[in-house]
Amino acid sequence: MPYRAPTSEYTFLFDAVVGFDQLAATDRFAEATPDLVTAILGEAGRLCDDVMAPLQRSGDLQPAHLENGVLRSSPGFPEGWSAIAEGGWVGMNAGTDHGGMGLPLTLATAVNEMMAGACLSLQLAPLMSQGQIDALEAHASDQIKEIYLPKLISGEWSGTMNLTEPQAGSDVGALRSKAEDNGDGTYAISGQKIFISWGDNDFAENIVHLVLARLPDAAPGSKGISLFVVPKFLPDENGNPGRANNLKVVSLEHKMGLHGSPTCVMQYDGATGWLVGEPHAGLAAMFTMMNNARLGVGGQGVGAGEGAYQHALDYALERKQGRSASGAIVDHADVRRMLMEMKADLFASRAVLLSCAHAIDMHAATGRADHAARAAFLTPIAKVFGTETGMKVSETGVQVYGGMGFIEESGAAQYYRDVRVTAIYEGTNGIQAMDLVGRKMLDGGEAAYALIDEIETLAESARSNHPNMTDRLWQANEALREATDWLVTQEDMQNRFAGALPYLRAFARVLGGYYHLRAAVADPEGPRAKLARFYMSRLLPEYQGHLAAATAGADGTFALSLDELRA
Amino acid sequence: MPYRAPTSEYTFLFDAVVGFDQLAATDRFAEATPDLVTAILGEAGRLCDDVMAPLQRSGDLQPAHLENGVLRSSPGFPEGWSAIAEGGWVGMNAGTDHGGMGLPLTLATAVNEMMAGACLSLQLAPLMSQGQIDALEAHASDQIKEIYLPKLISGEWSGTMNLTEPQAGSDVGALRSKAEDNGDGTYAISGQKIFISWGDNDFAENIVHLVLARLPDAAPGSKGISLFVVPKFLPDENGNPGRANNLKVVSLEHKMGLHGSPTCVMQYDGATGWLVGEPHAGLAAMFTMMNNARLGVGGQGVGAGEGAYQHALDYALERKQGRSASGAIVDHADVRRMLMEMKADLFASRAVLLSCAHAIDMHAATGRADHAARAAFLTPIAKVFGTETGMKVSETGVQVYGGMGFIEESGAAQYYRDVRVTAIYEGTNGIQAMDLVGRKMLDGGEAAYALIDEIETLAESARSNHPNMTDRLWQANEALREATDWLVTQEDMQNRFAGALPYLRAFARVLGGYYHLRAAVADPEGPRAKLARFYMSRLLPEYQGHLAAATAGADGTFALSLDELRA
């Protein structure tokens, strides 16, 4: 049951739903013509189908491991990385100054998601490099850029991000790693970092770590953190990997899934590093990296869900059981329901993801604040909705397989195990939701209302052709507006936080309806409209439950004492 | 982080929610006094806490395996089985004629769930025996009962059920295993069976297989299936294990979870068996076994969820992160929300489970048809709600742990992996839902309306003391009534089936509200009422989304062609 990258889905979304043509109309992305987009998607699709998808099981069955302190990646992964690097896919969104393709993030997001569906473990490696490239482009000195960016973009070197420490997870400000000035423009970095994805590999010439640490005079908390670039091998005068740095992989975690991707405990013992950006401004720089990474993780969720859907559908078409039109289980109503839910949710979450990327691109191309605000607002939604869809779809995929879904050989279980981490890393989904109702609504909800207004406008203009669907969406959107009114007037932030994730889920549900309606408008008699109707009648209505929870306030959430919780 | 069996939760549920006193008022269960119940729960709790819980990780890390065709169970499992057997827990619900305790199923369900929370893999072994004991008590000849029941009840022997074949899963009627009359009162059984839980072990003297097979003159489909008892060792004239039968374990499945429980491929090559019940009436006999097993699997879901909740709560109390009242993450609003949802859902699903068992017991004690109808109606709901709660709670448990949840050492991931199968075996959750809206509503919805009327009555009587909660419940219940009206008038069964699982979920949500309200009535100012309010305001409202999907009909579900699903 091979994986087929959903290239035509992207073409449709670009054309009919997220407005890719607006990007191509800017100077910055003028080269991103429909022909180029088609060519890129086709080329990336072949990489996914032919090179990456065959590695999916190998990564699970033969995990990355340490041999005498040396990391050995799963069989085929080095060749897979080479193919990704040689295709230019690591640097597709990077600036052309240092060898990147300079493509819109919207297109890069699509390619990343396709790669995630093919082989999530391997795809995480270029995703980490991309985040690092973003951060260095935005914050590093020209000298550092010259040394690192060309190698990272070409894939000769790979990148990691080092935030977490045992006592500092979601609360990054609690980290203790130290940086001391060596007086020669370098710093000595010491400390332990955990949960470092692809902290080492056997396919890049050099591994470049971006490490958060504290300078001696640093303030406590998140305002005293600086960012350093700390390579595994110190570049020599020609920029080639030279002497080994004082850092090592201590151990690998034994994880529930994503076995092909080594999760490292890293030890820095006075390792040589260079400051990126200003002293004590490391968290802001790291957030550049994390913002795009959050979008990337949302894409991992959707990608894994796509893989799970394709496998489940293939099984449902093949598996004969009971009496039905075709004899296959796909003709049983409950199985068909599951497949339709999977497909409708994948469409919705993918559209949110691409709309977020589109806003980021439009901001990059125009500098307009409204695009920046939309990008900031959609980022946590894209992360949560993408990863929750990935979990839900992969869980449903196991269910479609029945008993075989619990057997590892079917591959269905791997999607379910692998995708689970996406709701956790790059900021747990709870943290994302707090970001949404906190920081992202400090504007009084302006970005939220802009979307709600836009949805209302579409619902009204599409009403005559799609009365039933638009009525449902209009009602949901009005309920969302009322909940937003309630939320932005809550002075006690606990009231927002206690309903944060339900509010995010409701917003995602309504956004999904918005994009489904756009698809229906573009294809009013065809399968897009049919899928949209299914979504509006069966999935959109979930917003009601979410909004009830979103506006219930914090009192009930904290009603039980700790002893009562324990009882 | 030890597991503590939730004995006081059961005491409360028995006393205040499910009406255990009605059972004790019958002749049949007159001995089940409050003192006895307390003693039983205490004794079982100690077994769970001290003996079974320590085996949870060992089963995962050192799975059952075959050594030269001989099954070796996980370390400590043989001792665990002995403790279960010696405590009399295998036969707690079995008749006293053959050594059972004759306890109400309501109490046995509680004990089974506690054991499932302690160690799901091991608990599956006695659960299988219990199902077999039920089937033999109901259908076997006196001679078979005399030989098998005392040994099964004492735990000297263990039992399995053999239904599934590679081509016959949910469609049991497609099975091909053969039984030929040996002319001496025995039959020669031949065929391959798959997914046989605990198909062998190294702790029982004998393994008794109940096997479905076809006699030579059998009709095709499910009307031509007979049930046979096929022991691993043929009993000698004294009833002791004698000559080895012609059957073997071919292989074990490599599963996502539940590693401590071996899932066997069994081969029968003219194995000697004895007919149980009438020829060609095997499916009915097997359904006796499966009915209680479905309830048992619902309890597995709740039990695993309880284990996941306790671990997540312990972690949330210990893990310091960020700024909060205690410094621990339990004081973060989103973490508290997760824990409250877990606790509220565990209460609701446990109450449904016990109410179902209570109806079965009341039918056994009184023979009244209304109790039988209620038991039949609640069984699929208890199975689905229990297992979906187990999945949701264990998924949330992983989330509470954050990054550590994805690391196997934390134990959170094991609950998530293990519990996943409960939504599949003993009839997938989709099959359960079809049973509910199909067979279980052939009465025109009588059993459904009886519950809905009962809920309405409580909502009205409790209104003055709990106006807000009862309003919410009353509205949900009326919406459920309307959806039920719609459902029972659908002549086209596809319309019912396409909404079957959402309908079941809505019914479960409303039932959960019903039992929470009962708890609040019993404890109007205390933690029970607080938890009930949380449930009513935040979880009950999910019924709206479910009912929308339940009544959307089949047209939209089948709107896409197979090619369009694939596109």
Automatic annotation (TrEMBL), chains A, B:
Domain Acyl-CoA oxidase/dehydrogenase middle: 161-269
Acetyl-CoA dehydrogenase-like C-terminal domain: residues covered: 451-560
Gene3D superfamilies found in the cross-reference section: Acyl-CoA dehydrogenase/oxidase, N-terminal domain, Butyryl-CoA Dehydrogenase, subunit A, domain 2, Butyryl-CoA Dehydrogenase, subunit A, domain 3
Occurrences of domain Acyl-CoA dehydrogenase/oxidase C-terminal (ranges): 281-436
UniProt-recorded Gene Ontology molecular function terms: flavin adenine dinucleotide binding; oxidoreductase activity, acting on the CH-CH group of donors
Assigned EC number: 1.3.99.41
Catalysed reactions, semicolon-separated: 3-(methylsulfanyl)propanoyl-CoA + oxidized [electron-transfer flavoprotein] + H(+) = 3-(methylsulfanyl)acryloyl-CoA + reduced [electron-transfer flavoprotein]
Domain called Acyl-CoA dehydrogenase/oxidase N-terminal: residue spans: 77-156
Keyword Glycosyltransferase annotated: no
Job description of the protein: Involved in the assimilation of dimethylsulphoniopropionate (DMSP), an important compound in the fixation of carbon in marine phytoplankton, by mediating the conversion of 3-(methylthio)propanoyl-CoA (MMPA-CoA) to 3-(methylthio)acryloyl-CoA (MTA-CoA).
Name of the protein described by the UniProt record: 3-methylmercaptopropionyl-CoA dehydrogenase
Lineage: Bacteria, Pseudomonadati, Pseudomonadota, Alphaproteobacteria, Rhodobacterales
